[in-house]
Amino acid sequence: MKFIDEAKIQVIAGNGGDGSASFRREKNIPFGGPDGGDGGRGGSVIAVADRNINTLVEFRFKRIFKAQKGESGRGAQCYGKGGEDLIVRVPVGTVFTDINSGEVVADLAADGQSVCLARGGKGGLGNLHFKSSTNRAPRQHTLGEPGEEWELEMELKVLADVGLLGMPNAGKSTFIRAVSAARPKVADYPFTTLAPNLGVVRVDSERSFVIADIPGLIEGAAEGAGLGHQFLRHLQRTRVLLHLVDISPRWEGGDPVHEARAIVEELRKYDQRLYDKTRWLVLNKIDMVDEAERKAVVAQFVADYAWTGPVFAISALDGTGCSALTYAVMDYLGTQAAVILEEDKPAAGLPATEPPAAD
């Protein structure tokens, strides 16, 4: 099934039912008082995140979601039945944005999380409510309020701990096949990956993380060149980026250092927060470099690239260095989780300290 990560829909809540203008008329009570009931509330449109849904494909075929309207009130103080809410199930990670204002309406990032996209209208009042000492036979009643109506853009951002970043044919799909059970397409031509792939990397029986592979980026991606710019949003939720660089000998030319810098520049142009995210350098296809020259090739690349962060030399094809990389990622994610938990603890009870004296 083709991966769909964008859609536009229209949500229409139900109108409230009208109130009734009715009077009690029975054989023994020919001129009874008002007994008109209220109208029922209109149904709302509610979105619920469901982990069993993976794409927005169904929203390409069904674009209008309309909830049930409320029933009108009736005589004998019969209140109208409220309209049923319409539940719309969406993938976890779906972001709703108002098309007209550009405002983010909701971000459903957890399974079971829900949000009311359009609220149903209130029911109208029957003439029973307008009875008074001076108006014993009121004929006025109110109509039901209209339900909310919105045009929304849906955008899916996959939830993953680790994101893979790199040029086409850098070996991202081969790497995700090597470390997880995911089986994305692998071939020796650019843009083999046309949609994001998710894989679960299980380090041991109790520890695992999710890794995301997006189509490769090329220079100019932030302006729309290539395919990867369409999927950069899927890297925004990740906690660490693995920047894969092909350092195999280039018979047809090409500078891997220039390519690596170009990819990072595309990140900066697209989103500064994505550019500032923790990023590790992974030099792939080390198996194609002579074993005696590997250390020198890696050191030369790091020096030319002026890189000071973590560096891993791997071969996704034969698995060299992949295990060490996955363990390092797992340890880093565990450390990050511990830091978050520590930051959430209350700071009460800490002793007051004097500021250090100036020299």
From TrEMBL:
> Which NCBIfam families does this one have?
Obg_CgtA, PRK12297.1, PRK12299.1
Q: Does the keyword GTP-binding apply?
A: yes
Tell where it localizes: Cytoplasm
Binding sites annotated in the UniProt record for Mg(2+): S173, T193
Q: Which cofactor does it need?
A: Mg(2+)
Q: Which principal EC class is assigned to this enzyme?
A: hydrolase
Chain residues that bind GTP: 166-173, 191-195, 213-216, 284-287, 315-317
**PROSITE patterns, alphabetized:** G_OBG (PS51710), GTP1_OBG (PS00905), OBG (PS51883)
Q: Which PANTHER family does its entry note?
A: DEVELOPMENTALLY REGULATED GTP-BINDING PROTEIN-RELATED, MITOCHONDRIAL RIBOSOME-ASSOCIATED GTPASE 2
**Name of this protein:** GTPase Obg
**GO molecular function, one example?**
ribosome binding
Query: What do the Gene Ontology cellular component annotations say?
Result: cytoplasm
Keyword Metal-binding carried by entry: yes
What is this enzyme's EC? 3.6.5.-
User: InterPro entries recorded for this chain?
Assistant: G_OBG (IPR031167), GTP-bd (IPR006073), GTP-bd_Obg/CgtA (IPR014100), GTP1-OBG_CS (IPR006074), GTP1_OBG_dom (IPR006169), GTP1_OBG_dom_sf (IPR036726), OBG_GTPase (IPR045086), P-loop_NTPase (IPR027417)
> Source organism's superkingdom?
Bacteria
What is known about what this protein does?
A: An essential GTPase which binds GTP, GDP and possibly (p)ppGpp with moderate affinity, with high nucleotide exchange rates and a fairly low GTP hydrolysis rate. Plays a role in control of the cell cycle, stress response, ribosome biogenesis and in those bacteria that undergo differentiation, in morphogenesis control.
